[in-house]
Structure formats: C-alpha cells, structure tokens
Design goal:
By secondary structure, the protein is mainly alpha-helical. It is about 75% helix and about 5% strand. The protein contains six helices and two strands; from the N terminus they run αααααββα.
C-alpha cells in the first residue's frame, strides 16, 4: 500500500534501488547497535524505507500539493509513529532496523526525488524529470560504495571487538 504511489512517482528502477538500499540502511543500523548478538529477518526495514520515501516526497512537495500533500504527510507520520510504538511494546521486533530503514528512505527519497518540469506543451503536455536516475549516476555510485564501505567498517570493528566469526 505504501509503495504503489511512490513506485509510480519515482519510477520502478529508482523505487527498487531505494527499497534495497533503504532496507540495507536498516540492517546496517541494526548491526551497528546490536552486533552479531541479535539476528533478525524480514523486509520491515525496507518497508520503513518506503515510508521514509513517502515522508520525503510529501514534505518536499507540500506547497505544490496543497492540503492533499499535507494530509498525506501527517498521515504517514502517524503510521510511522504507531508502528514504532508497537515495535517498542512487542518482544522481538527490531526497531533499530525500522529506524535505519526509515532514515535511509528519507535520505534516499530526497537524493532521488523526481523534479518534473514541463518541456513541451504543443501538441500535448510533456514533462521531464530533471533528477532522473541516469542524471544521478554519481549519487547512485556513492550510495553503493558508501554502503559497501560502511558494511566493511562495521564488520571489521565487530571482528576486532569479539574476534573472528
């Protein structure tokens, strides 16, 4: 439900990239806080990343989308807040992965947000995304390399602290 609108707005390639790397952000934060002492599985970090994309998009477009955008932003804040509280109350819910995914989604949502401009109006309206994924290839590369580097650094620190796995 959270992803349908954002996949249409961001496009399938950007959406998939944000889903994967937002989920990895959740896993990395969870690993940074919990280390190898706590294992978790699931896609909830990536789902929180999509919630973060919603927050980033509707905040960035709050003036252009008017009351609709403000309502969607407020609604998403409530959904995120309720789910984080549920995660605090229930046992065995990895809220650090949720928070990491949310923050990763917000950051990636801003980095890769589509900025549509009208480029032609005759004979029909044509819009172009000034922030397309191909235009952001350096940002894509930095996210991939940064994620790999952060993963290695966290793995190395934990290896130093507790020995080889």
């Amino acid at each position: 439900v959270l992803g349908q609108d954002m996949e249409r707005v961001y496009g399938p390639a950007r959406f998939l990239f944000i889903y994967i790397f937002g989920g990895l952000a959740g896993s990395l934060l969870s690993f940074a806080i919990n280390g190898i002492n706590e294992f978790s599985v699931g896609a909830s970090g990536a789902i929180f990343a999509i919630a973060g994309v919603n927050l980033a998009f509707f905040y960035a477009y709050k003036d252009k989308l008017g009351q609709f955008g403000q309502d969607r932003f407020q609604s998403m804040l409530r959904v995120v807040g309720i789910n984080l509280v549920i995660g605090l109350v229930l046992i065995r819910v990895n809220n650090w992965a949720h928070i990491g995914g949310l923050l990763g989604g917000i950051a990636l949502g801003y980095i890769f947000i589509p900025w549509y401009t009208v480029v032609e109006t005759i004979p029909q309206v044509k819009v172009e995304d000034a922030n397309s994924l191909s235009n952001r290839s350096i940002a894509v590369g930095l996210v991939v390399v940064g994620t790999a580097a952060l993963t290695y650094i966290l793995w190395y620190i934990w290896r130093l602290l507790i020995g080889p796995f």
